[in-house]
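JOB MANIFEST
job_type = single_chain_structure
chain_count = 1
residues = 242
[input]
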Amino acid sequence: MHASSQWRSAAGTDPGKVRARNEDAVLDCPELGLWAVADGMGGHRAGDIASQLIVDSLGELTQPQTFDQRLEAVRQCLHWLNRRMGQELTVSDQQVDSLMGSTVVALLLEGKRAACVWAGDSRCYLWRGQQLYQLSRDHSLQQQLMDEQHLSFEEALAHPGSRALTRAIGASEHLNLSVVELEVLPDDVFLLCSDGLYQGLSHRELGQALSLISPQVALARLFDGVLRGAACDNVSAVVIRQ
């Protein structure tokens, strides 16, 4: 039995109330100790194909022996996909909307080790000791303005183009992934989600859902909360706990 089978998880995705197409995709592989959410770049050709390609490719990874080898395999897979999507761009018609890209956030768990890998503004949260922590930092113009120009959240949000991504799979020739590693504690709960989920819920609502007894119940609470609101974007989430 694989060490990661101690984890229970639930995943879901919904087009929301406005978008005709769901460009999100989710990976739910507790037997591999690997989960992911990918959000295809809205309005671009093949955003749904890009996100599905990412989760399919991650799900097909063979399992090297050590945690470090597995983490490296995830990173190499995402770099390969970035090159592949960049090549799709050059062979397709040279129009502005021919970009093929997607965000990704992936979580790798084994024993007491956890690693989160991401590009873009899909997020990883940790619920620990009745506190919610955001493990990932958005690769967005809004976050960059807050970091570099010390703007407040509201000031950065009001900036034209604040929602623009500064990193994504397929968006540029060189992919710069972010990685956070941490030690897992008993009762930790992880949440991977697209911006369609976290923009529709408060920090408090996210925490309240993650405090519920099972991943399935937590996931249902999250989706109920978002779909009661405007739900202008696709909504995806994976909840993982021991």
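[summary]
The chain has seven helices and ten strands.
The chain has one domain: 3-133+169-241.
exit_status = 0
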